């Protein structure tokens, strides 16, 4: 039998690779000659950089950039072995993880450092860039990122503006005279798993501004700024970012990337599965086994398991999900397309106890599943 193991991590207890190793132990106790293909995945969020490093056989590149408050820091991105592909995580340069709670205010933060990482990769001659935009501390519409790549933003008097959220409302003109020419020969894909518009009730500022330190008054101001910025983008580039699903991701970097980088917005898990050649390894598989820490309603929207299901169903390969906990109804499970779902928890206890026994419980769940398959075959 051929099994494809394609999990996300169990946050705080097992990496995707450890999940694969553990499940393989359980299966091999029943099917010692089984073909097992490990394809740990991620959805563009926390930990994606380590998964991608595996598939690109990539090395980490360090570069000096500006953090969200313009301070010099060292950030890292991945460069593939053939030097043709870079994987950049916005959070490494422009993430909230770089700020103290008291420093969080997306009126004053910039995505400049993200653009500096992109510029460094362009100078190294890459032809493909995958940009993950989770965990940002910014709401600048991608203005900072674009500034690092040669765009400049002017007010009504022709003065150059600092690329922060507060100044979106003042942008009157965008100068493109010094844009990095290497941008236009590079394919850029953005891992984007939300559908928020640029501005409005479901836009970048109103949905995410509060968690990035903006007050109610700030949020209204930022939303007006994004609306003004969208108008200038339309008159300059003839692109209406408000009509692009996901334009509001990462404080408007989703829309900014489409306009300034000529980027394509794509599902994070789809991009990782593409790097993992997932379609190819599925051929001839009897089962796909996936998993994550918790299976719940959020799994429907852009999460790893959902991506695995969509891909596997196209080739009619059944899917089993081994999860730390399961919080969905039978109807929801059926709608998701899962053929077998189990919580690996075996005892009542606290979260720390559960995490400590994750590997033991997962191996047992894998063994039981494989044994059930063997009985059904006999």
Automatic annotation (TrEMBL):
It is an enzyme of class 2 (transferase). GO terms for biological process: organic acid phosphorylation. Keywords: Kinase, Transferase. The keyword Endoplasmic reticulum does not apply. InterPro entries: Glyc_kinase_flavodox-like_fold (IPR018193), Glycerate_kinase (IPR004381), Glycerate_kinase_RE-like (IPR018197), Glycerate_kinase_sf (IPR036129). Its EC number is 2.7.1.31. Signal peptide: none annotated. GO terms for molecular function: glycerate kinase activity. It holds the Pfam family Gly_kinase. Belongs to the glycerate kinase type-1 family. PANTHER family: GLYCERATE KINASE. This is Glycerate kinase. It comes from Allomuricauda ruestringensis (strain DSM 13258 / CIP 107369 / LMG 19739 / B1) (Muricauda ruestringensis).
């Amino acid at each position: 039998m051929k099994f494809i193991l394609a999990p996300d991590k169990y946050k705080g207890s097992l990496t995707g690779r450890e999940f694969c190793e553990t499940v393989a132990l359980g299966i091999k106790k029943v099917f010692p000659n089984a073909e097992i293909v490990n394809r740990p995945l991620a959805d563009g969020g926390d930990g994606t950089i380590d998964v991608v490093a595996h598939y690109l056989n990539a090395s980490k590149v360090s570069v000096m950039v500006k953090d969200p408050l313009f301070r010099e820091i060292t950030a890292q991105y991945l460069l593939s072995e053939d030097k043709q592909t870079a994987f950049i995580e916005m959070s490494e340069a422009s993430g909230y993880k770089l700020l103290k709670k008291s420093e969080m205010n997306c009126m004053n933060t910039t995505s400049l450092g993200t653009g500096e990482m992109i510029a460094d990769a362009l100078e190294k001659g890459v032809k493909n860039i995958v940009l993950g935009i989770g965990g940002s501390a910014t709401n600048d519409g991608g203005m900072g990122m674009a500034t690092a790549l040669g765009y400049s933003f002017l007010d009504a008097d022709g003065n150059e503006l600092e690329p922060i959220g507060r100044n979106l409302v003042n942008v009157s003109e965008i100068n493109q005279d010094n844009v990095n020419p290497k941008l236009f020969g590079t394919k850029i894909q953005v891992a984007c798993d939300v559908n928020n518009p640029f501005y409005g009730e479901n836009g970048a500022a109103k949905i995410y501004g509060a968690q990035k330190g903006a007050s109610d008054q700030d949020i209204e101001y930022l939303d007006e700024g994004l609306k003004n910025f969208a108008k200038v983008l339309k008159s300059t580039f003839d692109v209406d970012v408000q009509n692009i699903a996901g334009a509001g991701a990462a404080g408007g970097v989703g829309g900014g990337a489409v306009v300034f980088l000529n980027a394509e917005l794509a599902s994070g898990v789809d991009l990782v599965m593409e790097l993992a050649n997932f379609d190819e390894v599925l051929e001839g598989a009897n089962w796909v086994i996936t998993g994550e820490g918790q299976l719940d309603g959020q799994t429907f929207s852009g999460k790893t398991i959902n991506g695995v299901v969509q891909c596997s169903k196209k080739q009619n390969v059944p899917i089993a999900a081994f999860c730390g906990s399961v919080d969905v109804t039978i109807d929801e499970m059926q709608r998701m397309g899962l053929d077998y779902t189990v919580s690996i928890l075996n005892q009542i206890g606290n979260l720390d106890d559960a995490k400590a026994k994750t590997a033991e419980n997962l191996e047992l769940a894998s063994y039981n599943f494989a044994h059930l398959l063997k009985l059904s075959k006999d």
